[in-house]
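User: Please fill in residues for this 174-position structure.
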């Protein structure tokens, strides 16, 4: 990569889609777009209010975007297939986790304590904001669709899947 005098990477002509492309129509994404994300977070119930939903404060540990969409139309069309591609029920697209602090795991139904860091699936509309050398995403809105217990943790599942793929390769005839 070539560097400009100020030490910043020179603009790449190929980088016509700095925020990636829409999962449905392939269009270059604008700064503000819709996303399906998988994250680790914990919820504390420290705000004033009568219901757990009003009291909830979300403390984000990490987030990984699984799919991005350019528009509301593409988001509605693409969310269900994107969920299924990650091994989740498509009906999650219309589901929203409210309340707490205990909620059943989306995969096995075991109770998940939302107050300790746990894997969760979220849908959101977000805006990318440049900050120093990196970009952070600020949610315009976001909904938690489902949570996972430690046994069903998506990162472990994909690790197992990768291991399976390697095993299969090893067994395949040469
Ligand atoms: Zn699109
Ligand atoms: Zn589970």
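Assistant: Residues filled in for all 174 positions:
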């Amino acid at each position: 990569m070539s560097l400009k005098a100020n030490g910043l990477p020179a603009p790449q002509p190929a980088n016509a889609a700095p925020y990636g492309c829409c999962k449905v129509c392939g269009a270059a994404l604008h700064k503000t777009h819709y996303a399906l994300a998988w994250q680790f977070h914990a919820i504390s119930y420290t705000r004033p209010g009568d219901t757990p939903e009003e009291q909830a404060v979300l403390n984000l540990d990490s987030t990984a975007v699984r799919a991005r969409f350019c528009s509301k139309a593409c988001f509605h069309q693409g969310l269900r297939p994107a969920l299924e591609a990650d091994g989740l029920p498509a009906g999650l697209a219309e589901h929203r986790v409210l309340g707490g602090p205990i909620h059943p795991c989306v995969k096995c139904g075991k109770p998940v304590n939302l107050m300790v860091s746990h894997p969760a699936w979220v849908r959101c509309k977000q805006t990318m904001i440049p900050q120093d050398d990196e970009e952070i995403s600020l949610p315009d809105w976001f909904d938690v669709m489902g949570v996972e217990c430690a046994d069903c943790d998506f990162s472990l599942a994909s690790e197992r899947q990768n291991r399976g793929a390697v095993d299969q390769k090893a067994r395949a005839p040469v």
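For context: The first strand starts at residue 32 and ends at 45.
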